[in-house]
TrEMBL record:
Keywords for this protein: Acyltransferase, Transferase
Name assigned to this protein: GNAT family N-acetyltransferase
Pfam families for this protein: Acetyltransf_10
Segments forming domain N-acetyltransferase: 4-152
Keyword check for Transferase: yes
Taxonomic placement: Bacteria, Bacillati, Actinomycetota, Actinomycetes, Catenulisporales
Length: 156
């Protein structure tokens, strides 16, 4: 893949990010047998509001957004969410780069990073564990779907 640039999300990126999010989460929906995952049902307006309230980075190749990750601070915790990579760009280290940059972007006072994924998303869990995250707990979302909560000390 050509050069990938990581930069802050801009307000005009919302439409392309929503398209990327839907494309990337189709495989998750198939994995869990649930076409109504929040990432697939989120509206354009909801996404714009979320992006305006939080912090987000995008990975671009030429002019195309191929990845995005979001974060928000809650006291000493930097919550990372919706780390999303275009299906044709997965497995090329873009998720690792985005996650690393999201961690570096955490404000002063952040003591830990936290994120979650579904229990069947073994590639995601493997990535997070490789980057130093450890499982803290599991939460049943609905029968057959558990959320795996992982955390990592910020080490500042």
């Amino acid at each position: 893949m050509a050069d990938v640039t990581i930069s802050p999300v801009e307000a005009g990126d919302a439409g392309e990010i929503l398209t990327l999010q839907r494309a990337a989460y189709v495989t998750e929906a198939q994995l869990y047998g649930d076409p109504f995952l929040p990432a697939l049902t989120q509206t354009y307006q909801e996404l714009r509001a979320e992006l305006a309230e939080g912090f987000a980075l995008k990975a671009t190749c030429d002019t195309r957004i191929i990845g995005v990750g979001r974060a928000r601070q809650d006291g000493p915790v930097w919550h990372i969410g919706r780390l999303t990579i275009a299906p044709d760009a997965q497995g090329q280290g873009i998720g690792t780069r985005l996650l690393t940059e999201l961690e570096r972007s955490a404000p002063a006072g952040v003591e830990s990073f936290a994120l979650f994924t579904g229990h069947l998303s073994v590639a995601n869990i493997r990535l997070y564990e490789r980057l130093g995250y450890r499982e803290e707990r599991r939460e049943t979302l609905r029968p057959g779907v558990d959320l795996v909560h992982l955390a990592k000390h910020a080490g500042r």
